Amino acid sequence: MDLNLILVCVVIAVALFFSYTNGFHDAANAIATSVSTRAWTPRAALLMAAAMNVIGAMMGTAVAKTVGQGIISISRYAESTQAEMQHKGLVIILAALLGACVWNLITWWFGLPSSSSHALIGGLVGAGIVSSTAVHWQGILDHVIIPMFASPIIGFVVGYFVMHCVLRLLRNAQYHRTMRRFRAAQRFSSAAMALGHGIQDAQKTMGIIIMALVAGGYGQTHQIYDPVTGDMTVPMWVKISGALAISLGTMAGGGRIMRTIGRKIIDLDPARGFTAEAVSSSILYLCSYVVHAPISTTQVVSTAIMGVGCTRRFSAVRWGVAGNIVVAWFLTLPAAAAVSAVLYWVAAWIVGV
């Protein structure tokens, strides 16, 4: 069998495995707060999140295009007629995926809600650097670094002020009745959060599969680029496979990370849980459809929880746990890049490029 075809199939398989790990790694983002407040049972919450991830994956391709075209340039490998150059392009993508998967599994094991998105982008950068591939540093600055710092800050600040407004509006309301209503409302806010996760994270896998098809010389076969406008398109089978992989991963759960987000940062009541989810999902939609930035669902929801928690009192947030999470965020990009760089050398030696 043609080595090029084998490499394309391997890269797609690993991309779908990454999407699966993304599902069980990041499932907690959408459902941890609603499970901790008993708005959903864990099983029902996972099924809901899996279904909403599938729906979200079908809603647009802007993030997929950013990942597929805006991080590293594989055009010279795709346009080359030399088989070795095409193999090299595929090895770069494979190493990036493996680096992201390894980091996902490490942080999942320790129960740290790190960013799968930044693990993937770090993997692409690490493999791109060691392979002397052009890295779009301006695109990374605009679509990764700035949103990486801005979105958690926005999540914290907006969560804090929105929760203050909610408390002021409901200061004379009957407590237990109000909490029951917020618990019911959380079913909708958590569903909105899961939908936003599907829109963001499933599309990242789609972008990687598109890169593999283009690097392997199958771009025209699958009509990746519109013949009239030249814009990148995502075939339906890529959308469906990415959606199903992340959905299956979501159903597999993520209990370790769920406990960290839902209970270890702060003990949430339904009002604060609803507010954190509503703020987080709004930021996800804004970044998906307006900024087209692949932001971290993990960072947004974690900081929104910290923001609403501070309205109870500043010490209510367990800042030691929060500090560990922030350290994991900053380590993700360089750690995933380092792992993917090492794996690139190993894979390149095996393939002979």
UniProtKB/TrEMBL annotation:
It comes from the Bacteria. Pfam families: PHO4. Keywords: Membrane, Transmembrane, Transmembrane helix, Transport. One of its GO terms (cellular component) is membrane. It is a multi-pass membrane protein. Its main location: membrane. One of its GO terms (molecular function) is phosphate transmembrane transporter activity. It is found in: Membrane. One of its GO terms (biological process) is phosphate ion transmembrane transport. The keyword Transmembrane helix applies. The chain crosses the membrane at residues 46-68, 89-110, 144-170, 236-254, 321-347. This is Inorganic phosphate transporter. It comes from Pauljensenia hongkongensis.
